[in-house]
Write a structure and sequence with these properties.
Elements: H1 3-28, H2 32-51, H3 61-88, H4 93-102, H5 106-132, H6 141-169, H7 189-198, H8 200-205, H9 220-232, H10 235-246, H11 248-256
Helix pairs in contact: 1-2, 1-5, 2-3, 2-5, 3-5, 3-6, 6-7, 7-9
């Protein structure tokens, strides 16, 4: 195998996977399966791109490390979304809003939308691929730093997901806004840690000393994820839904808690918090 053939195969595989996600979402009426499929697809095809041998001495220890990182991320997130979708019985509010906006053209436009998601998955798989193929011999400090950063991100995202799940399961919190744990520092801590995890790949990939300039491509992963999560398909539609469903409670939450970066905000103080409020 070589770079062009591998990239073409990954692109086709991701396109087919998101086509399957479209069929499942249309037949079940649950768009959560889309995000689960996307997560699994990035992990599987990212690992394939990382491990496919180009030379007789491949795969290397770095290729195994990087593929393990992306698979672990993929299945933790994918299984979390799948479990939530199976148990909830409700459609994702972001996709419900798209269904309302697109009307009769929903099916065709959703298919095109999911092919765009396949394209974003391809960029992430490419980031994984260039990190895995850093030619530096053996594992070094950058690999260790990348792995530690990745583990911290996965743990942070898992903790924020559990905190929100526990909050939702408490009947006393119905109609309230989660303002506990990591959710008191960021309105979307899960998105922050999701983005943070993708920083691990450029840390592993960048190797200017050996002239591996192509490693800079791995920066596309965190840059694209930040843009998507903060400005496109993450925070904006979810917060629109929260404003419709929680109204003034969520506005007060917005006024005192950062949208993305998890640290105490200067916009609000503990004394301004409404004790009756307690995401989704």
């Amino acid at each position: 195998m070589n770079w062009p053939v591998t990239l073409i195969a990954v692109a086709i595989g991701l396109s087919l996977a998101m086509s399957a996600a479209w069929v499942i979402a249309i037949r079940t009426g649950r768009s959560g399966w889309i995000d689960a499929t996307w997560s699994f697809s990035v992990g599987i095809f990212g690992a394939i791109a990382a491990l496919l041998p180009f030379t007789p001495d491949e795969p290397t220890s770095r290729q195994w490390l990087v593929s393990a990182l992306v698979i672990f991320w993929s299945f933790r997130l994918g299984l979390h979304i799948a479990a939530r979708t199976a148990a909830d019985g409700k459609d994702d509010p972001r996709y419900s809003e798209l269904r309302r906006q697109w009307g009769e053209s929903y099916r065709s436009r959703l298919f095109l939308f999911l092919q765009i998601q396949a394209a974003t998955a391809f960029i992430l798989a490419l980031s994984v691929m260039v990190a895995a193929r850093n030619p530096s011999p053996g594992l070094g400090l950058s690999d260790l730093v990348g792995a530690v950063l990745f583990i911290a991100a996965v743990v942070g995202e898992a903790v924020s997901d559990r905190q929100l799940t526990a909050f939702r399961r408490n009947p006393a919190n119905k109609g309230k806004v989660c303002d506990e744990g990591l959710w008191s520092l960021s309105r979307h801590p899960n998105y922050f840690f999701e983005w943070l995890g993708w920083l691990a790949y450029p840390v592993i990939a960048l190797n200017l000393a050996d002239g591996y300039f192509i490693g800079a491509i791995a920066l596309a992963g965190p840059v694209m994820m930040y843009w998507l999560l903060v400005h496109v398909s993450g925070i904006p539609p979810l917060e629109e839904h929260m404003l419709r469903s929680r109204g003034e409670k969520f506005r007060r939450y917005q006024s005192r808690v950062n949208a993305f970066w998890p640290w105490p905000s200067a916009k609000g103080t503990q004394s301004a918090r409404d004790p009756r409020e307690k995401h989704l």
